[in-house]
């Protein structure tokens, strides 16, 4: 069953009417209403196109958080083969919020790391809604170091509201774990590509997204803090989250202009949550293009390009 966002109410009403008419046809009570169904479908498509052509930053935030948006597991299923997950940080425990291991991408061996939010209530609890504890980032470091040792490119799929802020995570060195994971990304002598597929929240995202090439889905967000968190700090009022979202420049379009994001991956009209297969296919093409552009470079050149990319952010505004 499709979940509609608040601003999609006009489309929801049209879709409801279409479903009612289809039910009549199925019951043999509306044999002559095919034209009306077609007219309503056309109207719904136009309404959806109009809405998604002019999304505000807050609306994009809602789309990025949509529960039916494709998750890491969907990308694994459709883009990769022979995925072999690795578990544990070899120091404390396994963290299910970050998944990682080795796989094949279009026949090539790759290291895959990403946040998993889960689709059902049980999965979301298991994966802690994609918010990793320190052991998740230490696991990421362990896997990246293996990839670097065996000269295997790294692909990171980012989708997290942020690192888990609980007391237990802080007691086990959350900030240090994030910093070491970010450093591990910068130290890689192999190409790494990151894709913001939903939410890219704070250090929890940067820890695995410090890559040679950063891709971002059209209706994803990438920010140092959530709009609600920023509103709470700046105005002590979470009701101003919409204003915060606009001023924080968290959309793919804003971040591309600022040089934070290299490539925007277009989403079909209505967002990734309506067109999972098409979105994943487009993401695969973008990843292949990014990796192809880094082929033939030496380890030193790869490191230098990555470092220069991040040092240049904000210098030419």
Structural features:
2-enoyl-CoA Hydratase, Chain A, domain 1, 16% strand, 8-stranded mixed β-sheet, alpha/beta, globular, 317 residues
User: Which percent range describes the beta-strand content?
Assistant: 15-25%
* Class from helix and strand fractions: alpha/beta
Total beta-strand segments = 8
Structural domain tally? 2
Helix content: 40-55%
- Rounded mean pLDDT score: 93
The SSE string, one letter per element, is HHHHEEEHHEHHEHEEHHHEHH
Please give the CATH class of the largest domain: Alpha Beta
Please work out how many helical segments DSSP would assign: 14
Query: What composes the largest sheet?
Result: 8 strands, mixed
CATH topology of the largest domain: the name is: 2-enoyl-CoA Hydratase, Chain A, domain 1
Strand and helix layout:
Layout: H1 9-26, H2 34-53, H3 57-64, H4 72-79, E1 81-85, E2 98-105, E3 108-115, H5 121-126, H6 134-149, E4 153-160, H7 167-171, H8 174-187, E5 192-201, H9 202-209, E6 213-217, E7 221-223, H10 227-234, H11 241-248, H12 252-258, E8 263-265, H13 276-292, H14 299-312
Parallel strand pairs: 3-4, 4-5, 5-6, 5-7, 6-8
Antiparallel strand pairs: 1-2, 2-3
